[in-house]
UniProtKB/TrEMBL annotation:
Gene Ontology MF: a single term: lyase activity
Organism: Ancylobacter pratisalsi
Name of the protein in its database record: Phosphonate C-P lyase system protein PhnG
Domain of life: Bacteria
Keyword hit for Lyase: yes
Keyword set includes Lyase: yes
GO process terms (BP): organic phosphonate metabolic process; organic phosphonate transport
NCBIfam families: PhnG_redo
Keywords: Lyase
Length: 158
């Protein structure tokens, strides 16, 4: 593998890790975001690149895996963009109308991009990751409990 390929693979791995962290932040409760930021204190001051705002996004769906896309409906979303004192920019989108939580999520994104703070951010997000995994396991268990096995009885006449 040449140097360019190694750099590309490293860049892709970093992008996937950031996407995973932002997925956690997007699903975290506002109180969890506040506790994560408290655990990372002191947090550098953040200035708004764009004030946090609430708007609508169109949700698209598909019938089956290859059906034609259709507009399912609209959902409210809050978005924020911040820049930390160190120069890192953070961006976040969260379903709902909580612009404050979107700003906190953007701050966490900016902190995650600072290589010296990345491990601390990941460690602070561990309780959120555990809660979401437990919730997913609960839903999967409830779904598995409703599974129906169909079988055919062989009649003796055949």
């Amino acid at each position: 593998m040449n140097r360019a390929e190694e750099k590309l693979n490293s860049s892709n791995a970093l992008q996937v890790a950031r996407q995973n962290a932002m997925a956690l932040v997007a699903r975290a409760e506002p109180a969890e975001l506040a506790s994560v930021l408290d655990a990372l204190a002191p947090v550098p001051a953040a200035s708004d690149l764009r004030p946090a705002q609430v708007g609508l996004v169109m949700l698209r769906g598909r019938t089956g895996s290859d059906g034609a896309p259709f507009n399912l409906g609209e959902a409210t979303v809050a978005r924020a963009a911040v820049r930390l004192e160190g120069g890192q920019a953070g961006f976040a989108y969260r379903l709902g109308r909580d612009a404050g939580a979107a700003r906190q999520a953007a701050i966490l994104d900016a902190l995650w991009q600072d290589a010296s703070r990345r491990a601390a951010v990941e460690a602070a997000l561990a309780p959120v990751r555990a809660r979401l995994a437990a919730r997913r396991a609960t839903v999967e268990a409830e779904t598995a409990a409703t599974k129906v096995d169909f079988f055919t009885l062989v009649r003796g006449e055949d």
